[in-house]
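Deviation from plan, reported transparently: 2'-deoxycytidine-5'-monophosphate complex.
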Amino acid sequence: MTVVAVDGPSASGKSTISRMLAQRLGFIYVDSGAMYRTVTWKALEEGLDVNDTAQVIAMLDRIRIHFDICDQQVRMFIDGIFPGETVREPRVAEKVSIVAAIPEVRRVLVAHQRSLTQFGSLVMEGRDIGSVVFPNTPHKFYIDANPEERAKRRRKDFEAMQIATSTDGVAQALAQRDKLDSTRATSPLQVAPGATVVDNSINPPERTVEIILEQITRQQRAQ
Ligand code: DC
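Because the crystal trials were delayed, the predicted structure below was used instead.
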């Protein structure tokens, strides 16, 4: 079983890269951010105040989480529902960092993330995949891009969902989320020991994917 860990900040392009990598390798793609978003979506559906940690933890005890595979991608269900693109809505995006900072939420989701190797070899993207979830994988990558590129990417995502935004507003929201993600006490966003940092500001994704694939081949030869 092989795991490729792809970490990095929001809108660095890591989702595009991870999906392409999974396709090229024939591995299953896992978006761990979507798992934190799905728990956040459920809390909002239930009308919970996500700042009230006890309420979120009580919800975690109540819900049933399961996974399936569709088009070589893992989908997370809560109480039998897969919320799909709903988890990308700004109302979820605004709250997800708060939910992702709760240690109990992380403990539960990290255990689920580790269990996904039951489906086969994985490309898993997130913030702590190389540092916490699969620290022993030799294939760890940290995808970064400059703030302007990231704001442009995130704005395009919102446009595709027909959600009106300004580049400044998006840049501010990203900066705020980076701050929360990298300063939280449990599993902050960081470059995992042994990870290869890949700058994805200039290269087209195809080129970044080639660079990563070459590195994986070298790492496999060295094993
Ligand atoms: O990658 P994304 O923007 O969909 O992530 C959503 C949120 O979840 C973001 O605030 C970071 C957090 N996250 C995390 O804490 N750990 C992960 N492994 C993945 C995402």
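The first strand starts at residue 3 and ends at 7. We consider this an acceptable substitute for the interim report.
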